[in-house]
Amino acid sequence: MNVLAEWTALACEELGIDPARVDRDALLDLTKEVAHGVTRPAAPLTAYLLGLAEGSGTASPDAIERLTRLAQNWERPTGE
Length: 80
Known about the structure:
By secondary structure, this protein is an all-alpha fold.
């Protein structure tokens, strides 16, 4: 088992989350798109916001895909 898989399993156990509900690769792809397309600090914030939405039951089934598209289409304000 690699470190990331082991960490995911242990974190899920600690938080009482069924690891089968975690699409680790999709989440990592999302945070990569946000870090590179928006700004690096937005990546963990986006993952946290997605987690809040999931936990409250307000995340759509395609939330990761929608957020990924949002990051891919992000245009920085001209002032940056």
